[in-house]
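Reading a protein record of the kind used here takes little practice once its layout is understood. An example of such a record is reproduced below.
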Amino acid sequence: MDQMSGVFGSFDENINIISAQTGTTIRATEHGICISGTQKAAQEAADIIEVLKKMYNKNETIGESTIGYAMELVSEGHQEMVNEMMSDVVAITSRGKQIKCKSYGQKEYIKSIKDNTVVICVGPAGTGKTYLAMAMAVVALKNKQISRIILTRPAVEAGEKLGFLPGDLQNKVDPYLRPLYDALYDFMGAEAYARLSEKGVIEVAPLAYMRGRTLNDAFIILDEAQNCTMEQMKMFLTRFGENSKVVVTGDITQIDLPKERSSGLKKVTSILKNIDHIGIVNLTNKDVVRHPLVKNIVKAFEKYENRRGNTIV
């Protein structure tokens, strides 16, 4: 009964979403679940509920986003993937929460990080690109596979100028690095982060600080790489040394570079795609795991861009 309560949701809110989407009527009976509708619609609703049961048994909270993903799995005939997708715990936060893949694309992303030395992940907002990379970095550090974590971003203005921000250079670039700090706090806690940062085990710095360095025995993450020029991408991708792993993440629909400068991320995925030990992962709106409305916003912008034949920069 607990399982059914979790799947149905408070006041049957989850099951009402499935009913509305499939055109069926669903109710609980003493013998199980009764689904009324066309044979095709009823089967689809039953398959979605079975996927949600499996998610619930994997300790996943059933809500609008998980229902949406369950529907997509069923519509594509991939409902058997749910067990594989949610079988492994990627990491555990400082508060004990288990982090698991929430889409098949995320599962492939994690596998690529494990299998390759360099991984380039391109995808829209909300797909977990940075968060999952951070999770893998923290796990590698805890398992002593590497001795330090290096996180970097290009300090490119998105409607603001660095010169107008108060403080010294570090104060000016800190707002650009804040999402990286937030993820570290989530996995380590603020105290552990401060201690490791002071020891130099964790370094968060703007991309310009990487020039001229050789980064050995490190897990290196370049975030917001769509705002890197080709020269910056080449500089960064030639920094890593022995026993290091590199993850590059970016969203080519959110480029903040001046119009006369092209994104290096766009070019590098084609330049490096056939090199051994380099993984190229493309996430889509199907992998968005934030609020369900985020997925709809991403889809709407994709349709707009396809009609115009270009991308929003």
Q: What stands out?
A: The chain has a mean pLDDT of 85. Residues 169-188 form the longest helix (20 residues).
